[in-house]
Amino acid sequence: QVQLVESGGGVVQPGRSLRLSCAASGFTFSSYGMHWVRQAPGKGLEWVAVISYDGSNKYYADSVKGRFTISRDNSKNTLYLQMNSLRAEDTAVYYCAKALVLYSSSSDTNYYYGMDVWGQGTTVTVSS
Amino acid sequence: NFMLTQPHSVSESPGKTVTISCTRSSGSIASNYVQWYQQRPGSSPTTVIYEDNQRPSGVPDRFSGSIDSSSNSASLTISGLKTEDEADYYCQSYDSSNHGVFGGGTKLTVL
Q: To the nearest whole angstrom, how far is the Cα of A5 from the nearest Cα of chain B?
């Protein structure tokens, strides 16, 4: 069965960096786009970033653009989120999720329109 | 960009039917697929509806999704409510820049 296991969370000081990982199994990882979604304590879900199946296309929420980098290693079936210049407001549970994908012939674009299967999450706390 | 607005909370009795709305602020609700996610306390989200009205395998047919262009909204309807349906529910769509957009979430209480 499809399984996504996040790791790498922890407590980090403001301004420092952290890298999250998401190990995938049970499906052909290299064929699917992947999302990162986060949830601050007691708050709702916030989309963070998405990456195409081959890593050639990446999209970011305005709140993390320029600070976070999504990447993947298809040889290791692993998704990453490199988080730099962390702020207190980045404190959240971070989930990876397998993307639902739609190809638009009119715009020759893949749209990663939703989330299919979610991981269990990893907690990031940014605090001095 | 647009926003998706959901009621903060809804409540209903076991066995009844409840509908949760998700209103798009600008642009047509029919332009981009809407998904619905269930998040039980202490758990990660799971997908209950995708592509406006499709159920993943394993999701009971008590769950259904629809869109209404007249109100520019999507709806999640749960019939035959069970106590296990008590959870937070989130609608989600995407924009033309491939940015995901979530609603604020609705807490469903089954009492």
A: 12
CA-nearest residue to B43 within chain A is A120
Task: Give the ranges where chain B is alpha helix by DSSP (H).
Answer: none
Q: What is the pLDDT of residues A77-91, one digit of tens each?
A: 999 999 999 999 999
Please name which of A3, A34, A1, A2 lies closest in space to residue A115, comparing C-alpha atoms.
A34
d(CA A54, CA A58): 10
| pLDDT tens track for B8-51 | 999 999 999 999 999 999 999 999 999 999 999 999 999 999 99
Q: Which amino acid is at B73?
A: S
Q: How many CB atoms lie within 10 A of CB B28?
A: 11
Gap between the Cα atoms of A27 and B68, Å rounded: 35
Report yes or no: A66 at the B interface, CB cutoff 8 Å: no
- Rounded CA separation A121/A68 (Å): 17
Structure tokens at A4: 């996504």
Residues A114 and A48: beta-carbon distance below 8 Å: no
